[in-house]
Amino acid sequence: MKIKNIWVAGMCLLALVGACTDDNGNYRYSTLNSIEIEGVEEVYNVDQMDTLKIETLKLHFQVEETDELDFEWKVNNKVISTERFCRAVMTEVPRNANYAGVLCVTDRATDLKYYAQFGVKVGTAFSNALFVLSEDADGTAVLSMQRRDRENAPLVHSIFEQVNPEFGHLGKKPKQLIAPYSNGMYVVCAEGDKKVASLNAQTMELDGYYTAESIDGYQGEFIPEHFFCYYGMGMVISEGQLFLLNLFDSRTLHEPVTGHSFAWAGMNSAATTEVWFAYDENTEQFLHLTCDRNKDQMLHDQAALFDEVEVFQGEAPITTGLKYLTYGERVDGSDNVMYPVLWDPASGTAHFYEINIGFDFDTNWEPINPFSCREVLQRPNLSGEHPVCLLSDHGYWFFAEGKKIVRFYYETGGTDVDWYSGLTGEVTAMLFDEKQERIFVATYDGTQSRIYELSALNANESLKEPLLMDGKIVSMTAAGEWTY
What we know:
- It is a single chain.
- By secondary structure, the protein is mainly β.
- The protein has a domain of 89 residues: Immunoglobulins (Immunoglobulin-like, Sandwich).
- A five-stranded mixed sheet has the order 2-9-8-5-6, with no helix packed on it. Strands 24, 26, 27, 28 and 29 form a five-stranded antiparallel sheet that branches.
- The protein is elongated, with a radius of gyration of 32 Å.
């Protein structure tokens, strides 16, 4: 059997040799249709969240042009486009070096691939911008922004998810957006796995976040309602409890001050001692708390009523029966004066306060008589339903309730002015521009939000058509100087 197989194989080999001997070389050879890529520049400059456009691509075919091609554009080893011309939003963060880019063109007929390399230099888009925190239809937090160094720039939405795709959403039931430092921004949500999220304000990268699990051994709830931040220290109010955050050194969330029903808090920073204030709706009093940076226990549950310390005009304000209403945000960022607003549900009267903490210290940098508090204004006939308040450096309160904005003089004796009433939807947030010449007003009509740009100098003057977006805007903040 083996010999027979060898014989058959040998006969086949002789036949092949014979065939090759009789070959007359009668073949048709075809030229490979290779492709030469032109029109891709060496480096492209684009800001983060802007569109990288490469529309000068030219292909030269050695034989004949074909459309049987696949395109793949990559930057930083990520596919950003599969179209012939690249038009892709650049979400990579700014850095000193260029990002490596490559175009791959595949000829489907031959499966051959042709390449062109390029670089991308990414700049920041967030150093001069309006930031908006909103809640979509299912309660998810959405972070948006509008560049303010470009005329009529569009709102760009979901910037957190675009920059941080591996971390999912910010959370649900968004409460607040704050940018206290040039390189820091905080997003507060009542629900989710990132209750207080810290973002890099120049890149929107997630730096870290705080939840109840951030406190070793803590078994209680952490449902943030409001966040306050001064000099690297932060306070979070959650269901009446006051939590302290060390935002710089240890980045620690500490166990809360309990036994009170806190609704507002403010502070001043000395070299060694933090001076804290809070309004307790249980006792209906402003309280003074102490915090020593040199001690392990960062916030002590030691509260003193204002009438136990030296108070402006020799007496503490009477706050019996009052509930916390809102807070007068001030553009100048003065950390030594606070402006809480309380409300009397029985009469509908709002009470506006000035709490002066002061900067007088002894040789050990301990504050000397730093406390003063006075009521500067009362305004009746307010509903107390979700008001928004701004305080200008020119001595005016801009107070919004419902669909109307009223300007109050800072202290009793001035004339009230109906500032603007032609709004669609109820006011949910307000923000001054850098020069306090304009007020950005967010409203919500039950489905969509609008951002109005109103004059802060002349009543009933709208400066631009409002921006329109889906969802409910809950908070706004700004970065940089507003150049136009």
